[in-house]
Automatic annotation (TrEMBL):
<dbReference type="Pfam" id="PF09754">
    <property type="entry name" value="PAC2"/>
</dbReference>
<dbReference type="GO" id="GO:0043248">
    <property type="term" value="P:proteasome assembly"/>
</dbReference>
<keyword id="KW-0143">Chaperone</keyword>
<dbReference type="InterPro" id="IPR038389">
    <property type="entry name" value="PSMG2_sf"/>
</dbReference>
<protein>
    <recommendedName>
        <fullName>Proteasome assembly chaperone 2</fullName>
    </recommendedName>
</protein>
<dbReference type="GO" id="GO:0005634">
    <property type="term" value="C:nucleus"/>
</dbReference>
<dbReference type="GO" id="GO:0005829">
    <property type="term" value="C:cytosol"/>
</dbReference>
<comment type="function">
    <text>Involved in 20S proteasome assembly.</text>
</comment>
<dbReference type="InterPro" id="IPR019151">
    <property type="entry name" value="Proteasome_assmbl_chaperone_2"/>
</dbReference>
<comment type="subunit">
    <text>Component of the 20S proteasome chaperone.</text>
</comment>
<comment type="similarity">
    <text>Belongs to the PSMG2 family.</text>
</comment>
<dbReference type="InterPro" id="IPR016562">
    <property type="entry name" value="Proteasome_assmbl_chp_2_euk"/>
</dbReference>
<feature type="region of interest" description="Disordered">
    <location>
        <begin position="135"/>
        <end position="155"/>
    </location>
</feature>
Length: 262
């Protein structure tokens, strides 16, 4: 069993909707963006994925007083968007099991479209890609049963991931491609590739590690735009207070605290 609903929820709340999955990648940028989506869209926890044995054990407290875990699902009645939030890294010896767990969850809820969010190491950017903070990674051929969801339609307006000429043969276009800084993104896409009739795509954000709040806002805004929900105001959860240090501190970065960063 891949999904364990909380009381009052069920798999039916998730079935047939657009699913957003953050890959644990550089700067934890996808997780930060999903935090903003959860708070701004007022999503509530629908359940848990797995038993928590593929990620590092952790518990925490949310601003509404709930105990949170490492791998949860959030949704809202009447909203087409479902998101996974992964707050804990995958255990090194459980990577294959974790990818299989995500794959089984996707199979169970049969989303209309699955959107993977990931990071890209900005050290690999060339001059041209400096103008495109976000890029898309799409399978070479669409699923024969693909429905025309807003995200599926609009993601094609996002520039494609460029080839890394120094790292691979650019005469071919393998899928999934090399994703520098992307964590398990490539493994997840390989798993999705093995699923027949699974409409999916990826948005990757170039970034470096640091105060990534602005990057998270930009990525969350892009997801909302692709979902045709740009009117939603993005707000930060209370848990973000002091996320990268207090505002009165080191002048080298927004909110960076000299006690933390020197």
């Amino acid at each position: 069993m891949a999904f364990y609903p909380v009381q009052g929820s069920s798999k039916d709340l998730l079935t047939g909707k657009t699913l957003v999955i953050p890959s644990v990648s550089l700067a934890n940028l996808p997780q930060l963006a999903v935090d903003l989506l959860i708070h701004s869209l007022k999503l509530t926890r629908a359940g848990y994925i797995g038993l928590g044995d593929t990620v590092a054990p952790m518990i925490g407290a949310s601003q509404d007083g709930l105990v949170t875990g490492g791998l949860e699902v959030y949704a809202k009645e009447g909203l087409d968007l479902v998101v996974i939030q992964q707050r804990s890294p995958v255990l090194k010896d459980k990577k294959d099991e974790h990818v299989e767990l995500i794959k089984r969850f996707v199979e169970d809820i049969r989303p209309s479209f699955t959107l993977l969010l990931t990071s890209l190491d900005a050290a690999n950017q060339d001059d041209q890609s400096l103008l495109t903070p976000h890029v898309s990674i799409l399978p070479p051929s669409p699923s024969p049963t693909e429905t025309s969801t807003p995200v599926h339609t609009n993601i094609r307006s996002v520039p494609s991931l460029p080839s890394f000429s120094n790292l691979r043969d650019t005469t071919a276009t393998p899928y999934p491609p090399f994703i520098p800084g992307g964590g398990l993104s490539k493994r997840i896409l390989i798993a999705f590739k093995s699923l027949e009739s699974l409409p999916h795509g990826t948005i990757a954000a170039w970034c470096v590690e640091g105060d990534n709040r602005a990057d998270a806002h930009a990525l969350a805004a892009l997801v909302l735009r692709l979902s045709e929900a740009s009117q939603v105001e993005i707000t930060e959860p209370r848990e973000w207070e002091g996320l990268f240090g207090v505002v009165d501190g080191w002048s080298g970065g927004a909110g960076a605290d000299a006690e933390i960063y020197g």
